[in-house]
Amino acid sequence: MTAKVIEQFIRDDLLLGMRKEPIAPDESLVSSGILDSLALLRLITFLEERFGIAIEDHEVLQENFETIANMEAFIAQKQPI
Amino acid sequence: MAYLIQHLLSESAQRYPHHEAARFKQQSLTYRQLDEITNRVARALHREGVRRGDRVGIYVHKSFASLIAIFGILKAGAVYVPLDPNAPAKRLAYITRNCDIRILFSATNKLRDLDAMLEYETPIEAVLMADQEAQAPAQLGGGVRVVPWYRIMAESSAPPPDLGVIETDLAYILYTSGSTGDPKGVMISHRTIFTFINWCYDTFAIEANDRLTSHAPLHFDLSTFDIFVAMKAGATVVLVPEQLSVFPVQLVRLLQDERITVTYLVPSILSMMVNYGQLSKHDLSALRLVLFAGEVFPIKYLRALMHMVPHPDYYNLYGPTETNVCTYYKVQQSDIAPDRTRPVPIGKACENMEVFAVKEDGSLVTEPGEEGELWVRGSCVAQGYWGDPEKTARAFVRNPYQPFFEEVAYRTGDIVTLAEDRTNWMYIGRRDHMIKSRGYRIELGEIEAALYAHPHIEEAAVVAVPDDLIGNRLDAYIVPEDGYHLSVEIVRAHCAQYLPHYMIPERIELLEALPKTSTGKTDRTGLKKMAVGTKGASV
Fold it and tell me: Nearest-CA distance from A81 to chain B in Å?
């Protein structure tokens, strides 16, 4: 569910519908050039609002944002159960 | 005698064979290893038919392959042409046609993009693959041959034959955006880059135990400082993975963990580090020199940076790709005084280079406060634009102040003024960023400086949108400080405190961040497109 929401945001809002094929959960968003510093800031704002979490500067790391799967795991660990 | 840029590597390999030349993701390459690998690459290029002066493309993400390609190509007597690994295929295919790139140095992780590039018309005949476990196909689209890494490594590691290259031959071509839409290739000779490297080496006293970052992509001229100065000094260059520009904390951590002593970055990246990098929580005690260039550094971030990391020397370097760096300025404490809003000067000419400013009437700026276009002369000036004598003739002109012999000077298009000290130059703005609105002369940089003076404006950019009625309309794009609520009314009232009414932006838009180009600068072209796109809607 989380993965779908993130993918949707990336395709609609960051890539403005330019990408036709789906984004695999383990595809690197950084080396493929999808995420740059500007896109990352927008993505963080989106995740904070959508999932009701606060993302600290020191958590903005490659291991948390490299792929959609990384983000999903990161959000799951941030959300209260 | 070192007179070609590749000699720097070979000489350091003699002196410091076991010293780390480069580091990337905790791995290292010694001077001897780099020297021998690049000998093999040069020989492989010769086998593919590369001759003196041929252009060879580099199409890789920042890694050891970047260094191996640069020095392999130079040792083959050829000219290297870095292709932006993230640029659209169409633009890259244009570059390969423009300077006739027949051989390309690439890697398996670019195979998909290579296929996309080869769908366009291109002269590429063969691609050398830079990775060891390459499972590349034998051929790519259109019958382009693939030379796998093991074939390169099968070549002899002895120096390749000398093809008689001399210092006035080209070393590399850097493509920059052209005002007409197609990129233009700035041609740099060995002598031109040597002038810069020698100056850096002396001025910044780079030594074998220095550790420099290599952050800028190869197609950006900042990259030449890190790589070539390190090679000259026998120092270590730490290649920064491209991904780290996106994650400021990781970039700061790299500076700490790799004990970096010298770093050369664009102001936007330094500003990101100030805002999100947790600088004060890291140990940057090894850092002795911070150089920045490429755009104006908003004084409030420079101030914050120098407060958080007070011990290094800070230098503002200035120069378009066409001259590399031509002026420099060591930042003083007084430049970052709390009441100061004006950016630091671009400084005075580097040793062995001369700059002067020409007023609109053709006379030279001699008094403080006078404004003129900055011209540059000396062997730091590029050889022109590849295959474009017209554009070359417009910017690389005969120096009218040298009556005794013909000499080329470069017109930067940058407007500067002489500071009160009669020594340093102050950057005012682009000749083509100077716009007129309602008949008034307006510098967009001045409006931006006023916006940055607001304590809760994090980033600001102003673009001029052509308008039939008033000449130009001004649009401002503002990024408020995190968590701070700014309204258009507040910003407008703030502007009214600093600017005459004709300089207050008509449209003010609040954004979460400003778009950036691949080299990390504010993407003004993108903003302008946004502004033009919304033209009718704002009225």
Answer: 27
